[in-house]
Amino acid sequence: MSKLQLKSRSIFEKIWDSHVILTNDEGQSLLYVDRHYCHDGSFHAFDMLSESGRKVLRPDLTFGIPDHYVGTKSKDRQDFADDERRAVVETVEKNAAEFGINLFGLDDPRQGIAHVVGPEQGLSLPGLLIVCGDSHTSSHGAMGAFAFGIGASEVAHVLATQSLWQLKPKAMRITITGERSFGVTAKDVILGVIAHISAAGAVGCAIEYAGPAIASMSIEERLTVCNMSIEAGARAGMVAPDQTTIDYIEGRPFAPIGEVWDEAVTYWETLPSDADATFDHEVEIDIGTLSPTLTWGTSPEDAIGINDIIPDPNEESDLRRREEKQRSLDYMGLSAGSSLKDVPVDRVFIGSCTNGRIEDLRNAAAVAKGRKSKVPTMVVPGSGQVKAQAEEEGLDKIFIEAGFEWRYAGCSMCVGINGDDVAAKVRCVSTSNRNFEGRQGPGARTHLVGPEMAAAAAVTGCITDVRDLMVES
Amino acid sequence: MQPFTKLSAIAAPFDWSNVNTDQIIPARYLRKSRRHPDYATYLFRDLRFNSDGTENPDFVLNQAAYRQAKILVADVNFGCGSSREGAVFALAAFGIRSVIAASFGDIHYNNCFKNGLLPIRLEEKVLARLRAQLVEQPGSTIEIDLEGQFVVGPDGTKHMFDMDLFRKRCLLEGLDDIGLTLIHEETIASFETRYQETYNWTMPRQG
Questions:
Q1: What CA–CA distance (Å, rounded) separates A429 from A432?
Q2: Size of interface A-B (CB pairs under 8 A)
């Protein structure tokens, strides 16, 4: 092969190759990291760094963003659930000062969920390698980046060396064809994908989402899709940058400008997978028949359309799987063979790194407008910027008039860390990403949905097909 | 880090697929110091204990034969979900040194190695056999040899496992991988210079 005949590569391989510092004899590659987001849970890593007497190698590429532990009732530091949680948030602020890293602290109007703030600020760019000590870091792949979650020890490693040892994941392409029918959202698409390939379907893989249904999505929608890649077990999920991506990034605070911008765009245009690139796994999913989707069980793979019936565990051929699915149903207080439609709900949560962006809030507000909530409903914007934008558009008034609580930015009820918990046996319709047992609080029953379906449940007090409340344009 | 070479210990059958890290340690304990003396009690907290704090007698690690287990024999996708390393801190605090599963959540898999815990991948049908033996003979032991990359089940059958050699070496020698990486400090620095010249646009504009 002559030097000019380069091997065809996928976007994932292109980004991987440009970040390899070295590959050792044992096959592990040391990868260079462009962006490192440290949320408030990163205190273990800073402790490890301090204990070993090490410093942050590149504070300019490191961003402290408290989100998990922040209170969402107000910006008042006295309003934390307890002193311990306040201390966790203040620790990231203290560490930022001590190690000289960038900070979007509690008093900063840009503070929010790391996975909302990164793209919004123009920090998460195509072609970058992005890490954060949070599994939903896969979100940033929507910008055309290779982004993945890491553990606390790896966070400490990146802080100290701006690099990370990795074995190359397998490449998987999920091609999404067909047109979304009326009322079907990006959340329904990704829930449908996970139900199709299973919660372990992409273990060890970096997913590229491709096909016309992805190309026609907004960045916010692609962020929702990439966000939940981890729920199928994937290391990362990504979408090749296109004009939609470039238009989204241009003019954002940290994005390049002038000649550097032109250089960046020229490079980004080389990133999409070559036409004859090969993948270790290929999956094609037609979403033409997809309807608004929600989960019935305790794994994100337990998703069905709003008009489907809950599958019977006895149809599982594997005895153990049968028992697990039955256990899920018992936990959720549901029976096989019944419909989820009209099941009464106790509360609703709208927010999270999956669905806490401005488009999500607009879509929820469109359903809430002129209606009243029947159950306690909380709207938590993904960032201070999202909150400000929503207020400029008057969405806050729509929510407040509908009786929804309008909160401050943070992870909130998605993860049950900051005190915004769901009580045992309480049925919560939620726009978050995990319906695990106890995720929103011990014994809490979570149904994952998109923002429109969440708003529909709020104003009817039961699980509802949002299309019945919408006017088709 | 505590090295891992050989282990012969009681193994507990953990017959669930997709065990997630929220189950291994609920989020409300993540704010605790990883050296907190109660850390072992956070492991599988909401499965091991009832809401009144009493033990759930049905949970495998509460059964007399398995209380001293140092090995878990699980199934597919163990440790999926959240990246929380607290899941490994809790396993380690309880005394678990190895988890055998058909597959692992990727992040959890990596986290294990950082804490002297060995995650081993074996085929599903082998795991089913091992779990059946552990149920039939509660309290029986499994032998693990990392150097030789094999597991010996309660019935004496030897099962080889694959793993990457870098992680194996780190675990055998108990190496601190930040220290190992810093051997390459100059290579990283020269890469960085070249990288930033080539991809100037990657630098955040504000900051």
A1: 9
A2: 192
Task: Give A257-287 pLDDT, tens digit per residue.
Answer: 999 999 999 999 999 999 999 999 999 999 9
Rounded to the nearest angstrom, the minimum Cα separation between A382 and chain B is 19
Residue A257 lies in a domain: no
* Interhelix angle A219-227/A358-368, nearest 10 degrees: 100
CB contact under 8 A, A204 and B30: no
Q: What is the CATH number of the domain that holds A126?
A: 3.30.499.10
| Per-residue pLDDT tens over the stretch A23-47 | 998 899 999 999 999 999 999 999 9
> What confidence score (pLDDT) does residue A233 get?
96
Interface test with A, best of B112, B165, B201 (most A CBs within 10 A): B201
Option in B88, B110, B205 nearest A256 (CB): B205
Q: What's the structural domain count of chain B?
A: 1
- Give me the helices (H) in A171-234, please: 186-197, 212-215, 219-227
> In this structure, what CATH number is given to the domain that contains residue B113?
3.20.19.10
Instruction: Determine the residue of chain B that is closest to A163 in CA distance.
Output: B188
Give me the pLDDT at residue A80, please: 87
Contact A203 B77 (CB under 8 A): yes
C-alpha A72/C-alpha A413 separation (Å) is 10
Cβ neighbours of residue A436 closer than 8 Å, sequence gap 6 or more: A298, A299, A446, B20, B22, B23, B81
Element (H, E) at B58: none
Using the beta-carbon criterion (under 8 Å), do B46 and A437 form an inter-chain contact?
yes
Q: Do A54 and B178 touch (CB under 8 A)?
A: yes
CA distance A90 to A204: 35
pLDDT(A3) > 70: no
| Closest Cα in chain A to B110 | A151
- The answer to whether the Cβ–Cβ distance between B22 and A21 falls below 8 Å is no
A122: containing domain:
11-168
Q: What is the pTM of this model?
A: 0.97
Asked if B8 and B70 touch (Cβ cutoff 8 Å), the reply is no
A41 to chain B, closest Cα gap in Å: 7
Predicted-complex ipTM score: 0.96
Q: Quick one: pLDDT at residue A246? A: 98
